[in-house]
Design goal:
Radius of gyration: 19 Å
Shape: globular
Strand order of the largest sheet: 6-7-8-3-9-10
Order of helices and strands: EEEHEEHEHHHHEHEHEEHH
Largest sheet: 6 strands, mixed
Oligomer: single chain
Distance between the termini: 18 Å
Length: 263
Amino acid sequence: MPLDSDTAEPILKVSNIESYYGPIMAIRGVSLSVPRGKIITVLGANGAGKTTILKTISGVLDPQKGSIEFEGKPIQRIDADKIVRLGLGHVPEGREVFPFLSVRENLAMGAFLRSDKDGVAQDLERVFVYFPQLKERIDQPAGSLSGGEQQMLAISRALMNRPKLLLLDEPSLGLSPILVKEIFSIIKRVNAEQGTSILLVEQNAKMALETAHYGYVLEVGRVVMDDTCERLMSSKDIQEFYLGAKEENARGERRWKKKKNWR
């Protein structure tokens, strides 16, 4: 990957992985890397295999082929809890908070591996700076929060473990445009202020490309294009198929019938 390859070593390197759901191959020879301290995004439609990539990296799924290196050490087929202990956090699609536990208890669950009480207290205050709504609802059951607040809680819970790499799966899903902007602003702050490396899976291509440094485009389980986000945003195919731009002189031709050239 050419993004600052001379200065930014990869904290994560995925090489030619293949993962299956039963007999169905979900991702096909996917390779990508995340340089330390950068935000990398993976774009793609529903069913492209984006979530499967994150599940494979975090140990929820075992790859049938390929390798995954985190800080230079292979982690494929390692149990998910051991991968968390290495410093990898995963915020899954759909938020997945503990609905009957309070906001405070959910955040404590994020820090259950830590024994540094002072550091935990500092990080708790930090997430309240990012998401002050959570402090106001500290003793409420997580299930009573709005969808946006639950997404804030899910991200905050992952941050409480001080991850070196954070995997974010569709953080904008089901949120209003105002909340989407707020969530993505915090993602950028976490990266800039804490130096946390981030692998972001997202269908909202515009927000993802404006937030990340480098991007991969996934279709039917394969990477079909990768480049800096600035260059991806100027790509005609990306503009048309992911950003909603309409090509001049197009006479009503359906987008799904048009062939992507990935130029």
